[in-house]
Design a protein that fits this description.
275 residues; alpha/beta; cell wall biogenesis/degradation; 15% strand; Rossmann fold; EC 5.1.1.3; 5-stranded parallel sheet; 2 domains; 4-stranded parallel sheet; 9 strands; 41% helix
């Protein structure tokens, strides 16, 4: 039956594991296929046309190879570049994107000032600017492009991660709970939640951190339920795909996901971009 088919989740690398973690908590009976396009990461520093083409290719692969019943675009840059194209191309497929959680952050902030950390690809996208414009009367948003941070998290370079987190928060923004200070931080890339402990250490417990995993997981549940596609009896398995190093993905799964999650053992054939 259609409800027995897996849900596809893809990202340019391991950042989407933060979304997968939330999805598995919300939908423990569902099976998933996680596609890490690490051979072409990071998306946030590539052009929109490249990311759009890559997203369309991956969606076709997941449909043909795994017959997915839903697709979660677990990457802010890919969502901004391609989610509208994916929905237009695959009209019967529930497609869920992610975007920086500006609205929840504005509601959380007491000072009315919010810092948004994201890739340049996300911050420069029309989709993001539309969201930002719609919320300008709710908070003052300070936008910080975080070059290199997703790549450092992808590689697991602790020294680089810590230095970049410090550079893009402590050295750029004035955080605090007083008038005119920034009291809320949006982790606007799916990689960044894996550096949350470092941000908390740098900024202190009074600064609110906002990410997108739980809202995305709840929205995915609602879409599948509306179409009668929830699987009440699945085993919660994850099938892994990567265009990069299987060992790197295996290491990331062991590090970032909950204990007991089976690590990947296979690598797919490389995908070719359409001409």
């Amino acid at each position: 039956m259609d409800r027995d088919r897996p849900i596809g989740v893809f990202d340019s690398g391991v950042g989407g594991l933060s979304i997968l973690r939330a999805l598995r908590a919300e939908l423990p009976r569902e099976d998933f296929v996680y596609f890490s396009d690490a051979g072409h990461a990071p998306y946030g520093e590539k052009g929109e046309a490249f990311v759009s083409n890559r997203s369309l290719e991956i969606a076709v692969d997941l449909l043909e190879q795994h017959r997915i019943k839903g697709l979660v675009v677990a990457c802010n840059t890919a969502t901004a570049a391609a989610v509208h194209l994916l929905r237009a191309r695959h009209t019967r497929l529930p497609v869920v994107g992610v975007e920086p959680a500006l609205k929840p952050a504005a509601a959380l902030s007491k000072t009315g000032r919010v810092c948004v950390l994201a890739t340049r690809g996300t911050l420069s996208s029309a989709k993001f600017h539309g969201l930002l414009t719609s919320l300008r009367d709710q908070a003052d948003f300070v936008l910080v492009p975080c070059d290199g941070l997703a790549a450092a998290i992808e590689s697991g370079d602790e020294v680089a991660i810590r230095e970049l987190c410090r550079r893009y928060t402590v050295e750029v923004c004035c955080f605090g709970t007083g008038p005119g200070e920034i009291d809320t931080l949006v982790l606007g890339c799916t990689h960044y939640p894996f550096a949350a402990e470092i941000f908390r250490e740098l900024l202190g417990p009074s600064i609110g951190l906002v990410e997108t995993g739980q809202p995305v997981a709840r929205h995915t549940r609602r879409l599948l339920e509306a179409q009668g596609l929830l699987n009440p009896q699945g085993s919660g398995q994850v099938h892994w795909r990567t265009t990069g190093s299987t060992e790197a993905l295996r290491t990331a799964v062991r590090r970032w996901l909950e204990p007991g999650t089976p690590a990947p053992a296979e690598t797919p054939p490389p995908l070719r971009l359409a001409a």
